[in-house]
Write a structure and sequence with these properties.
globular; mainly alpha; single chain
């Protein structure tokens, strides 16, 4: 047996043992896996490489932390609650459009933080009671929240798996917006309409409307939405007019919008809110630190090259089958880990087949779907908690959409050049 394979099995074995047997956090389990692999490879305790791996994704750290602060601030200001009530109040006569807008609201935190957990716990928790009032069964509401959060996680502007895959081949995270929107928006619309439309069109409008909290919007008016509008404007202008508008960078944009939210809505304790936001972000940042160390040691020991070579040696059928099965399955542990460990070699194996950005976007999309895979199933388990059900009952309604979404991602992998106009 080749030494690289022994090292890989050791790293995965230590990681899985730490996570599932010792019940350690994913981040710490990945660190232990990295140390175990280095020891087996004869590299000793890889202190320097662990330190370097910690800072591999420092740019991503800044984006996630600043985005989470922004989400927590606008939630505390009442903007999300006001937007939720406004959508139902204005569009209750058009159930399909109302459902789509509510689904976009579920997605929004994931779009700006790159975390499905953030989407479920923030806007998902606010939108869930509305879905339930529309008459949608609890299990289907849980499925809508889980799938919506994952679509938000995969959507632009922040898709962490895409960043990890692009960074692994030294490709800038530029031009992903079009492909990722194609992958996520139709899927999100299809999911919410398939699971909820037949209930929404029969809803008791009087009961729903009287239960909405419209006081916040009446008290603060349009200005409560200004931070959200400012975010959209800054993101669009920096991309549409790159020579005219300076590129502020996403962390600074989120910081500016967070400051604006302090003066446009409900008063709140700023330091306490920011502290809560960072506290919520730490598990996600910890996973990225663990992934960075894991990948660094894989590169040091030659395991990364071993995986790449073996992926290149697979025939086309086996390669695409491995992408559709192995990447979501690895997501049961960490979708970020799946992007780094499997996404990079799969991208290298497919470089000759067409547009790299389309391929990377599709791979990242399939990675994100791993957040539905038990036992970890971050998006699914949190969504099930919100609707007070076991995840197994929610998962039943996620299976068919999951299969269709994976196949949709496969279409872009098979014919990447046909979608190159989106870049």
């Amino acid at each position: 047996m080749e030494i690289e394979l022994i090292v890989l099995l050791t790293m995965l074995g230590v990681f899985l043992a730490g996570n599932f047997l010792l019940k350690l956090p994913v981040s710490l389990s990945m660190v232990l896996g990295a140390v175990g692999g280095a020891l087996v490879a004869g590299q000793g305790f890889p202190l320097r490489h662990l330190f370097e791996g910690t800072f591999v994704y420092v740019d991503t750290f800044l984006i996630i932390a600043s985005a989470m602060v922004f989400m927590t601030v606008i939630e505390a200001s009442g903007a999300l609650e006001a937007l939720n009530a406004a959508i139902v109040h204005r569009f209750h006569k058009v159930p399909a459009l109302m459902l789509v807008l509510l689904m976009l609201m579920v997605m929004f935190p994931g779009m700006v933080t790159g975390s499905s957990t953030a989407a479920v716990l923030s806007s998902g928790a606010l939108v869930a009671p509305v879905f339930l009032m529309l008459g949608i069964p609890k299990a289907k509401v849980g499925a809508i929240l889980a799938l919506g959060a994952i679509m938000g996680m995969a959507a632009p502007p922040v898709n962490i798996p895409a960043m990890l895959i692009a960074g692994g081949v030294d490709m800038p995270y530029i031009g992903f917006e079009g492909p990722l929107l194609l992958l996520t928006i139709p899927g999100a619309i299809g999911v919410v309409l398939a699971l909820g439309y037949k209930y929404a069109r029969k809803m008791d409008r009087d009961t729903v409307l009287t239960s909405l909290n419209t006081d916040i919007a009446k008290q603060y008016g349009v200005k409560i939405y200004l931070p959200l509008a400012l975010l959209v404007v800054l993101l669009v202008l920096t991309r549409a007019l790159p020579g005219t508008v300076p590129n502020l960078g996403m962390p600074l944009i989120f910081a500016i919008c967070s400051v604006a939210a302090m003066f446009t809505g409900r008063k709140f304790k700023v330091l306490e809110t920011v502290r809560d936001a960072i506290h919520t972000t730490i598990p996600v940042l910890g996973k990225l630190v663990g992934v960075g160390m894991f990948i660094q040691v894989m590169t040091l020991t030659g395991v990364r090259g071993y995986i790449v070579i073996n992926c290149l040696s697979l025939g086309p059928v086996l390669l695409y089958l491995a992408i559709c099965l192995a990447m979501p399955a690895f997501g049961a542990v960490s979708s970020y880990g799946a992007a780094s460990v499997l996404g990079v070699p799969f991208l290298l194996a497919l470089l000759a087949s067409g547009n790299q950005i389309i391929i990377a976007a599709a791979l990242s999309f399939i990675c994100c779907l791993g957040d539905l895979m038990p036992p970890t199933a971050l998006a699914g388990n949190y969504a099930a908690r919100i609707v007070e059900l076991k995840y197994s009952r929610v998962l039943v309604h996620c299976i068919a959409p999951f299969v269709l979404l994976v196949l949709f991602g496969l279409v872009l992998l098979l014919w990447p050049n046909a979608f190159a106009f989106l870049v």
